[in-house]
Amino acid sequence: MTAALTTPDAPAQPSAGRFVLRQLRWLVRLHRPALLIWGAFALVTCAALIWLGGPLTDSAATAWATERGCGITDCAYDPAAPDRYSDFYTRTTFAVLAAPFLVAAWAGGWLTSRELESGTARLAWTQGVSPARWLAARLALPGLLVVTVTGLLAWLHRRAWTAGEDRFPATDAWYDYPTFYANGLLPVALALAGLGVGAVAGLLLCRSAASLATATVAVGLLWAAVHLALPYLWPTVTRVTSLEQGPAVLDISTGEGVLTADGDRRTTACRTILNGCHRNLEDLGAVHYFNDFHPPSHYWPLQLVASGALLAVTALCVLAAFRLLRRHTGPVPGKADRS
Predict the structure, then answer these.
(1) Neighbouring C-alpha atoms within 13 Å toward the C-beta of 189
(2) How remote is the C-alpha of 127 from its chain's centroid?
(3) Rounded Cα distance, 248 and 295, in Å
(4) Are 108 and 197 spatial neighbours (Cβ–Cβ below 8 Å)?
(5) What does the DSSP assignment read for 282-336?
(6) What are the angstrom distances between the C-alpha of 254 and each of 228, 231, 250?
(7) Burial of 335 (0-12, 13-18, 19+ CB in 10 A)
C-alpha cells in the first residue's frame, strides 16, 4: 500500500461580511487618534456652518436692512454683525477647503506607510488576509468616510452661502474662488484624490513623515493645476460692448480686448476711451470691446468637469497603489508555492 501525499490547506479566506467587519474594527483600533481628530474637525465645522447659515446670517441681514432704512434717525441694531458674518464665513470656507489636505496627510502618514513601516501589514498577510484585500479595505472604508464627511461639509457650506445670498452685500459672489470651490463637488473629489495620493506615497516611501509631506504637497500641486485649468474646462460666452461703455466686468473672465471692423481680436491695456486711450484705440482700428467669460449657468459644468478630472487622477492612483503593492509582496501576492 502506498500513502497518499497531501499538502496543507491554505488559510481559509473569511467571508466578505466578516472581512469588512474585522477590517473596520482593526482600522478603528489602529487609527483611533486620527479618527478622533477627524471627527472633532467635522463636528466643529458642521456646527459652525449651521450657525453661519442661521443666526449669523439673520443677524447680519437684519443689521443691513435696518441701517439702510434708518436715514438720519437713531436705530437700534448691531453694526458689527455684517463684519462678524464676513470674518466667520472666511474661516469656515477655509476649514472646508482644508479637508482634502487633512485627508492626504493622514493617508500619506498613517494609512499604508505606518503598517508597512511597523510590519503589521505583513503580519496581516500571513493570517488569511491577502495583500489585495488588505489594500482594498484601506481604500474603500476610509473612502466612504471621506465622501460622507466632505460631502456634508460642502452641502452645509452651500446652504449657508445661499441663506445670505442677495440679503446683504457681505456675501461673496459665486465666482469668488474659495466660495466656488467650497460650494460644490470639488472638495469631495480633491479629498478622494488626496486619499489615493497618500496611499501611493505610503506604499512608495514606507516612511510616515516622508509620505505625509509628499502627499500634502502633491494635493497642493493638484489643486493648483485645477485652479489654472478651471476657466478653460468649458466653452466660454462672449459679450461685446461699445467703446463708450467700456469692457464689461464679468464673473470668471478668460480673455478681453477689442474687436476691429473686420472682426479681428486685438489685446490692449486701454479700458476706456478717455485718458489717452482714444488714439491707441484708433490705431488698433477698434470698434468694440469683447470679454470671454463664464456666466453663473456654467458653475455646475465647471464643477463636474473638474471633479471628473480629479476622479480620473484618483483612479490612476488606486491602480498605481496596487501595482506598488506587488513590489512588497512579489508577483503572486498571498499565495505560496506548493510542492
Answers:
(1) 21
(2) 37
(3) 12
(4) yes
(5) HHHTEEEEEEEEE-GGGHHHHHHHHHHHHHHHHHHHHHHHHHHHHHHH-SSTT--
(6) 11, 6, 10
(7) exposed
State how far the alpha carbon of 278 is from the alpha carbons of 70, 83, 242, 246, 275, in Å: 44, 41, 13, 12, 8
Distance CA(317)–CA(281), nearest Å, equals: 51
Identity at 215, one-letter amino acid code? A
Give the pLDDT confidence of 252-272 residue by residue, as tens digits: 988 888 888 888 888 877 776
Q: Look up residue 184 and give its DSSP letter.
A: S
Q: Beta-carbon neighbour count of residue 266 at 10 Å?
A: 14
Q: What pLDDT sits at residue 338?
A: 41
Pairing of strands 252-260, 237-242: unpaired
Residue 296, sorted as left (phi over 0), alpha (psi -120 to 50) or beta, turns out to be: alpha
- The answer on pLDDT for 87 being more than 70 is yes
CA angle 334, 337, 339 (to 5 degrees): 155
Grid cell in block for residue 110: 498613517
The secondary structure of residue 232, as a DSSP letter, is G
Q: Could you count the other beta carbons within 10 Å of the beta carbon of residue 283?
A: 10
Supply the pLDDT for residue 336.
Answer: 42
Are the CB atoms for 172 and 150 separated by under 8 Å?
no
Interior CA angle at 106 toward 100 and 110, to 5°?
160
Q: How far out from the chain centre does Cα 229 lie?
A: 15
Q: What b-and-e string marks burial along 126-145, b requiring 16 or more CB atoms within 10 Å of the CB?
A: eeebbbebbbbbbbeebbeb
What are the beta bridge partners of residue 265?
Answer: 259
Domain boundaries, the chain: 18-230+302-329, 237-297
Q: Specify the pLDDT at position 2.
A: 41
C-alpha neighbours within 13 Å on the C-beta side of residue 23: 26
**Prediction pTM value:** 0.83
Nearby residues of 5 by Cβ (< 8 Å), 6 or more positions away = none
